[in-house]
Amino acid sequence: MPDTRRPFFLALLLVLAPAIAGVAVAQTTAAPPPAPKPEEAPPYKFSGLVYADYYYVVRDHRDELEDENGFWIRRLYFTYDHTLSKALSLRVRLEVNSKGDFETTGVNTPYVKDAWLKWSFGAHALTFGIEPTANIDFVDAFQGYRSVEKSPLDLYRWDSSRDFGLLLQGGLGKEKRTRYSFQFGNGSGTGSETDASKAVRGELVHRFPAGLVLEGYADWQDRPDGRDVSTLQAFAGWQAKRWRASLQYGRQDRRETGPDGSDLALDFVSAFAWVQVAPRVALLGRVDRSFDPIPNGETTDYMPFSADAKSVFGLVGVDVTLAKAVHLIPNVEATRYDETADGTRPGTDVVPRVTLFFSW
After folding, report:
1. How far apart are CA 312 and CA 287, in angstroms?
2. Residue 1 domain flag
3. Which of 7, 199, 236, 334 has the fewest Cβ atoms nearer than 10 Å?
4. Are 83 and 89 contacting, i.e. CB atoms less than 8 angstroms apart?
5. What is the pLDDT of residues 308-337, one digit of tens each?
6. Measured in whole angstroms, how far is the alpha carbon of residue 357 from the centre of its chain?
């Protein structure tokens, strides 16, 4: 008896074949599943940096310091930054330093260097807390070698690099080439406030398209017993791809702080230059002329100055980039003094160093 089912199945297969083929094609050409979304960067960041030296005191105006040598950490930062929202951010930073007075021993104790909350609105920002003073922060950023030495206002203790208070900053004009800073603070650096005196600071910076940068700065620091301090600074710099240079002038008037309670006027001029001579090698140099003896110069950490004579301070160095964030900087600092009022001259200070700077 013939099998009548075979023609039926053949006919069914012919009818369903196009549909089966379409399903197969659809399966092979289906769009791939969507790629997973990249993970968003966390709103917080940990970072830090270290300035460390090996130093050797070849000559010094204080005989007991000659031949002193060793290793020290002039700066260690550990920083926590957190973005709270598009408008709000904060920073907490700890700093540690080796004792730089050539006398004190003991462990390196961390202290709070920054602790601020910033509110950004448009091209402006208002910061509250322990924050940088705008003038020292600007010069350090332009020159780029705080790892080697402090800028003059900081080095000669005309002002502190930090203060506790309010800082308003922002950009002006269509291209925001002009920036302003206005700060109202305790005038006590990172320390606690112990009196009713306050400090007011103002700064304007303009950057020209060709690379010229001009800055003007003024402050008034109220002090107890009428010993107020006022400061003026003018800065001109030029930035190019392979070199930069700057000239800085500062004047500070201190009321009733001179001999026998007289007013004291201090002036300095400072010149800085940097040039890249190879992809990983740069040369740098700086000369400061202090037209007056440096008050309390003997208490300057790592590089004490004679407080009895006018001086010329200079440094030269070679910056060798070992990696993106690692720099080895052999350098020499030296200070030559004028004659004092009694006709004597303090000895010249000469301190060669090898500085290692790294950050993460």
Report:
1. 7
2. no
3. 7
4. yes
5. 999 999 999 999 999 999 999 999 999 999
6. 13
Contact status, residue 110 vs residue 80, Cβ threshold 8 Å: no
Nearest one of 311, 330, 308 to 320, comparing CA atoms: 330
Partner residues linked to 359 by β-bridges: 49
Neighbouring C-beta atoms of residue 194, cutoff 10 Å: 9
Rounded CA separation 100/55 (Å): 11
Half-sphere exposure of 90 (CA within 13 A, CB side): 7
Whether 27 is covered by a domain: the verdict is: no
- Contacts made by residues 79-87, CB under 8 angstroms, sequence distance 24+: 79/46, 79/47, 79/48, 79/114, 80/44, 80/45, 80/46, 81/44, 81/45, 81/47, 82/43, 82/44, 82/45, 83/43, 83/44, 84/43, 86/120, 87/119, 87/120, 87/121
**Closest C-alpha to 196, from 216, 170, 222:** 222
Among 355, 337, 252, 343, which residue's Cα sits nearest to residue 297?
337
Domain that holds residue 62: 41-359
Instruction: Report the distance separating Cα 182 and Cα 201, nearest Å.
Output: 6
DSSP string, 242-268: SEEEEEEEEEEEETT-SGGG--EEEEE
Number of domains into which the chain is organized? 1
Tens digit of each residue's pLDDT (9 = 90 or more) over 181-202: 999 999 988 888 888 889 999 9
Do 333 and 353 touch, CB atoms closer than 8 A? Answer: yes
Please give the Cα distance from 5 to 2 (Å, whole number).
9
d(CA 34, CA 250): 62
pTM of the model: 0.86
The answer to the question of residue 3 being in a domain is no
